[in-house]
Amino acid sequence: MALPRPRPGILEITPYVGGKAKSASSKPVAKLSSNESPLGPSPKAIAAYRELAGELHRYPDGNATALRQAIGRRFNVDPDLVVCGAGSDELISLLIRAYAGPGDEVLYSRHGFLMYPIAALAAGAHPVAAPERNLTADVDALLAHVTSRTRLLFLANPNNPTGSYLPATELERLRAGLPEDVILVIDAAYAEYATAPDYASGLELARGTPNTVCLRTFSKLFGLAALRLGWMTAAPAIVDVINRVRGPFNVSAPALAAGVAALEDLEHQEQARAHNATWLPWLTREIQALGLTVHPSLGNFILIEFPSEPGHDAAAANAFLEAEGIIPREMGAYGLPGCLRLSIGREEENRRVVEALAAFVAGRR
Ligand code: PMP
């Protein structure tokens, strides 16, 4: 008897494993494994979410009208050119599903976000990784890997997990070098944290070209990861296509309400940004001072490289930190087994990280 078989490519997928939430340690847990906001969401977003409790029998607004308008005001984009999704993850999948299938290629940078190859394989398309230079996307290498089968190119800017970014001029060079029928998806999940003067989120390119998508999320600076809320903007033809393939009520009503309230709370956004602007450089400096390599990051996380000797390597550091109640993200799935990624936490969490790493480097417990 023939058993059901998935489509080609599906069994090549290594399932995405999220950051751990628990450690076996009896110490207080510092969950620094998923680049979440240590400040949590705006109290106004929590209130808006709670208010929805009386309306759970109602379907959400399938057009996300109020949220798209709030996004339009906050980010100066046309609300008609915004599509909301259940996390930017859903929009990544929808873009690939709508534009790529068997025989097509989805291009990304070697240490790009894991969902790009996963969503490509799920759609029956072929993921293609272009090499990087110094853990940074390389425009020339990306362009060299474009073929007549390339349909989309995904670039996280800043990138998770490396923290590196391409300046605005490089993004423009990439777009200009790509064939017009290739969609460039600039995944700007960490844009709100990016402070470099030559950084651009891709909103301008999405506005000014017919084939560029800018992808954003409420999971990071806005602190709403649990609600699953993301959005994208692009030219009308792309927006029209995604609206055809998305589910009619793909974003929940509590997420819509909390998203609007979060956007309106500029003070909370500023606090979250200021917190990161203080503690990202502090952690980077303190950990570098211990003799470890910390890659420069524009996000809300750092990538730490450990020596390769057993006992001093990333696996040993991970075990040591977990025993201290600190949970980093191991990077084997990203092809960086010598590294750990750590989110920027609350002040006391950041101080514990430095203390624990100092003890690890000194070989004490
Ligand atoms: N893109 C990048 C670069 C990310 O790091 C993440 C979250 N880890 C996402 C997209 C997905 O975010 P979400 O689905 O929560 O919006």
TrEMBL record:
Its EC number is 2.6.1.9. Residues 20-34 have a biased composition (Low complexity). Residues 29-357 form the Aminotransferase class I/classII large domain. Pathway: Amino-acid biosynthesis; L-histidine biosynthesis; L-histidine from 5-phospho-alpha-D-ribose 1-diphosphate: step 7/9. It comes from the Bacteria. The modification N6-(pyridoxal phosphate)lysine is found at K220. Its cofactor is pyridoxal 5'-phosphate. It catalyses: L-histidinol phosphate + 2-oxoglutarate = 3-(imidazol-4-yl)-2-oxopropyl phosphate + L-glutamate. One of its GO terms (molecular function) is histidinol-phosphate transaminase activity. The keyword Transport does not apply. Transmembrane segments: none annotated. Keywords: Amino-acid biosynthesis, Aminotransferase, Histidine biosynthesis, Pyridoxal phosphate, Transferase. Gene3D superfamilies: Aspartate Aminotransferase, domain 1, Type I PLP-dependent aspartate aminotransferase-like (Major domain). The keyword Cell membrane does not apply. Residues 20-40 are annotated as: Disordered. Belongs to the class-II pyridoxal-phosphate-dependent aminotransferase family. Histidinol-phosphate aminotransferase subfamily. Homodimer. This is Histidinol-phosphate aminotransferase. It comes from Benzoatithermus flavus. The gene is hisC.
